[in-house]
Amino acid sequence: METAIRVSALSKTFGNGRKALQEIELEIAPGEMVALIGASGSGKSTLLRHLAGLTAGDTGHVEVHGRTVQLHGSVAGDIRSVRAGIGFVFQQFNLVARLPVLVNVLAGMLHKVPLWRSLALVFTREEKARGVEALRRVGIAECCFQRASTLSGGQQQRAAIARAMVQGARVILADEPIASLDPESSRRVMDILAKVNREDGCTVVVSLHQVNVAMRYCARTVALHRGRVVYDGPSSALTPQLLRELYGADADEILSLGDHIGSLHGAHRPAEPRPSWTVPRPAVSAAQPA
Ligand SMILES: Nc1ncnc2c1ncn2[C@@H]1O[C@H](COP(=O)(O)OP(=O)(O)OP(=O)(O)O)[C@@H](O)[C@H]1O
Q1: According to the UniProt record, where is the region Disordered (predicted)?
Q2: CATH 3.30.565.10 fits 5-256, yes or no
Q3: Residue with CA closest to ligand 1 atom 30
């Protein structure tokens, strides 16, 4: 089976002895939209950084669309070219504040333009038109000449998604993209991620604190607890009772933000799942030692 993302035996212990990832096994099919949930410190950001090859694990193998991102603790030598197919939307906004929004978006195609043009940030008319079109799709075309620093938090996240679009990313990794946003901005950002997934067939992995957002937007959820996958299956099966079984007292953190965007009207309903899993699989007991 073709996979967009394949992870096997990935573990990471930081210098302070913290086991951030423990024996992660994961397969994500092209076109899936997968939520990564877990309490603070469960390893969501660390896993996403390993998927992009921004951090090397101690052991294990990560592949994106058949290309090695990292193997046995070493990031691939051609990681820049592998990363060209991966869009990353960070929790902390990652635009160059002093540059116009359009230039930030066009930065997504720097890997495709000649060096002199990338250094001088010179883009052709056609490239600029693609950037404006991407901004139109995320609903902020009118902001294209504004400095990125003047955008609201939600608009900055939308610009980051537009950048991934012009990059031609086949996989988008979004690390808590709605963590700092109000409910309305959160809904917009999640709607846009769902749209890119649905219309462009882009595989999306989005880490979230709120289980209700995962259930609303993602057919599949992978739940982490203390660096381990404790659940990988349909989001619809994540009842409060199951979450309490998986997380114990930590379940409150995931459930407490219950209605962050869930009550808003018009939110996208997830598309029919194209799962690379077959049955709900609570992976291991949440009672594993950290
Ligand atoms: N560079 C680092 N050095 C040492 N420990 C780290 C480092 N990065 C992460 N950790 C630890 O690894 C664990 C997982 O952190 P991570 O940021 O991945 O969790 P998270 O689920 O994304 O949390 P949050 O929801 O708060 O962002 C935490 O215990 C964290 O303190």
Answers
A1: 265-290
A2: no
A3: 41
